């Protein structure tokens, strides 16, 4: 955004004020049950309004390569011991840390997301995080102290949290959980959810001791417990939705499938079954791995239900068909489960026939959407998909289904049809359907349009 243009700046300031007011008005969640059981310890939403100045960020992969101690995880008790050692090296490191943190903290006092000093703040934080002479664990607690000093619910605290994620601070699990359970805005809670999820990536069995791995496992269990509790009992719809999206990357696949199935069968007081299904499908299509883990279970759970009577299955079908109709479906859909998807879609063919005297545009669109989804699920590329749709036109024994495909088919399908050896048969079937004295005006118009498609003519 051009800083010389005044209007966007004013809008940005107003948006910041609105966001801060909404935080102050946000309600307190009732999490007393889980708080008593937890000891004191793309694209993610930030607490900071988007800056008009481009921000610099740090690649986690680059940090792993740059910092020799990146995977040197330390429980908090070990941190205190390390910091109290009285030797020259430790003292030099401490002085260096204190100096750099003082610079960061001082620059944040004049923090303005739309001001030129954003670049300077970014540079100071990145310089601190990339410093090889300061232990990773010291960086983690120093940055957390800065965020806490300003308040993690503030724009300054949220700014620090953005950078803290790069260090995957599993050691701060307790602090994150306690903060999450406190009375802070939903936007910050969502930021903490992402932080806790990303922290699970710190595990590295090749570079960590059994004690470190055990510690990571213990913190992971606490994170999983929090996520599961939020998913089942959370009272903030926005947080529950975000938890559901992150859930499969936090808990074992089997548990995620089980909990999501429970939600679909028992419902949730905050989000509807349709929303749960919608988010579940979004989760399922996140990667080839999640497709293999989640999609078959979702399909199995609804296979025997009547989609015309079940809004939840309608939601599943709509999102599934949309994914299958995507031009890049062949690349992002896991080929190993395509046969399972094809079997499911085949069983979902909408009811549509010449027996229905009334026919709506919605019915025609729904049927063609199903046709494209099935063709995509049974083909490997767009060329094969067009051939399959052409074969469906030829092989269908109902003129209304045949016509519904023809009137909405892509040009490639029409050209395939016109060059097919069975084109005369299709044309004769359509003409014969028009001779039926019992068809309605709606059916007649649909069939006449289909005939024009076959012949390559139009109303004009």
Features:
460 residues, mainly alpha
Number of helical elements = 24
The number of E-state strands comes to 0
Please write the string of helix (H) and strand (E) elements.
HHHHHHHHHHHHHHHHHHHHHHHH
Radius of gyration: 29 Å
Low-confidence spans? 1-53, 79-86
Mean pLDDT: 80
Shape: elongated
Strand content: under 5%
Describe the structure concisely:
The chain is an all-alpha fold and 460 residues long.
Helix/strand layout:
Elements: H1 6-25, H2 32-37, H3 60-66, H4 76-84, H5 88-108, H6 117-129, H7 136-150, H8 155-164, H9 173-180, H10 186-199, H11 210-233, H12 237-246, H13 253-266, H14 273-284, H15 288-302, H16 311-325, H17 329-332, H18 338-347, H19 361-377, H20 382-395, H21 399-408, H22 411-419, H23 423-434, H24 441-455
Describe, in plain words, how this protein is organized in 3D.
The chain is mostly helical and 460 residues long. Helices cover 66% and strands 0% of the residues. It has 24 helices and no strands. The radius of gyration is 29 Å and the shape is elongated.
């Amino acid at each position: 955004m051009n800083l010389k243009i005044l209007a966007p700046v004013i809008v940005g300031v107003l948006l910041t004020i609105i966001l801060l007011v909404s935080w102050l008005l946000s309600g307190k969640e009732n999490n007393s049950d889980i708080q008593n059981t937890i000891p004191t310890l793309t694209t993610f939403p930030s607490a900071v309004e988007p800056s008009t100045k481009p921000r610099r960020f740090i690649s986690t992969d680059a940090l792993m390569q740059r910092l020799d101690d990146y995977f040197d995880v330390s429980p908090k008790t070990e941190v205190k011991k390390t910091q109290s050692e009285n030797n020259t090296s430790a003292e030099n490191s401490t002085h260096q840390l204190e100096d750099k943190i003082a610079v960061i903290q001082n620059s944040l006092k004049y923090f303005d997301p739309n001001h030129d000093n954003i670049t300077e703040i970014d540079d100071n934080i990145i310089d601190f995080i990339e410093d090889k002479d300061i232990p990773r664990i010291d960086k983690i607690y120093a940055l957390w102290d800065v965020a806490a000093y300003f308040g993690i619910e503030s724009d300054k605290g949220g700014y620090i949290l953005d950078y803290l994620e790069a260090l995957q601070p599993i050691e701060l699990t307790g602090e994150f959980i306690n903060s999450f359970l406190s009375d802070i805005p939903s936007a910050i809670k969502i930021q903490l959810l992402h932080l806790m999820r990303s922290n699970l990536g710190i595990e590295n069995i090749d570079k960590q001791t059994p004690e470190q791995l055990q510690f990571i496992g213990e913190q992971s269990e606490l994170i999983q417990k929090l996520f599961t509790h939020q998913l089942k009992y959370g009272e903030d719809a926005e947080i529950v939705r975000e938890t559901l999206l992150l859930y499969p990357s936090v808990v074992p696949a089997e548990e995620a499938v089980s909990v999501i199935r429970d939600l679909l069968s028992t419902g949730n007081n905050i989000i509807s079954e349709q929303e749960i299904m919608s988010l579940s499908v979004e989760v399922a299509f996140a990667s080839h791995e999640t497709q293999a883990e989640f999609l078959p279970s979702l399909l199995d759970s609804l296979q025997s239900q009547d989609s015309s009577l079940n809004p939840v299955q309608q939601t599943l079908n709509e999102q599934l068909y949309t994914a299958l109709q995507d031009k890049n479906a062949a690349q992002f859909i896991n080929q190993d489960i395509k046969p399972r998807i094809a079997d499911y879609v085949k069983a979902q063919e909408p009811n549509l026939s010449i027996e229905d005297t009334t026919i709506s545009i919605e019915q025609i669109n729904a049927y063609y959407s199903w046709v494209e989804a099935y063709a995509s699920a049974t083909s490997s590329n767009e060329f094969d998909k067009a051939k399959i749709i052409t074969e469906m036109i030829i092989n269908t024994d109902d003129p209304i289904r045949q016509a519904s495909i023809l009137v909405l088919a892509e040009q490639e399908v029409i050209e395939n049809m016109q060059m097919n050896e069975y084109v005369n048969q299709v044309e004769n079937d359509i003409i014969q359907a028009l001779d039926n004295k019992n068809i309605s005006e709606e059916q007649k118009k649909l069939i006449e349009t289909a005939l024009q498609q076959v012949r390559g003519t139009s109303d004009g």
